[in-house]
């Protein structure tokens, strides 16, 4: 069943539009039920697996995130920062444990001389603190 509606404006009635009242609603409802019954039609499982793998790889979460307490390297770094760079140490103390572990990892692997190493650590700490 089709209805014909005349569109009128201030200049008079000019156009007639043919509307099938239930066709659009029926299409939308059908699509909803098709995708609700099988969500993999919307996003494939392979895509979700690849996306999950990419997210885990780019997370940069250190492997030592257990509740065993700070490592010896972390304790040594904290004492060194507190003594040599107290302002940087204040920002470091406000980081979460994963960010602290990232800083410790940088400290462990950075082969630069001491002043450059402190610069690298300060930059990393501030980047993590300000989420840059």
Q: How many domains, in number, for the residues?
A: 2
What do the pLDDT scores average to? 74
Structural class: mainly alpha
Low-confidence stretches: none
Helix and strand run: EEHHHHHH
Radius of gyration: 30 Å
Which overall shape is indicated by the principal axes computed on the Cα atoms?
elongated
For the sheet with most strands, the description reads: 2 strands, antiparallel
* Through-space gap between termini: 60 Å
Helix content: 55-70%
Tell me how many strands there are: 2
Biggest sheet strand order reads 1-2
How many alpha or pi helices?
Answer: 6
Strand proportion, as a percent range, falls in 5-15%
How are the elements arranged and paired?
Elements: E1 3-9, E2 12-19, H1 23-37, H2 45-58, H3 72-84, H4 86-93, H5 97-109, H6 114-129
Antiparallel strand pairs: 1-2
Keywords:
single chain; about 130 residues; mainly alpha; 2 domains; two-stranded antiparallel sheet; 6 helices; 2 strands; about 60% helix
Please give a structural write-up.
With 132 residues, the protein is mainly alpha-helical. The protein has two domains: 1-40, no CATH class; 72-129. It has helices at residues 23-37, 45-58, 72-84, 86-93, 97-109, 114-129; strands at 3-9, 12-19. A hairpin with a 2-residue loop joins strand 1 and strand 2 (12-19). The chain starts with a strand and ends with a helix. 8% of the residues are buried.
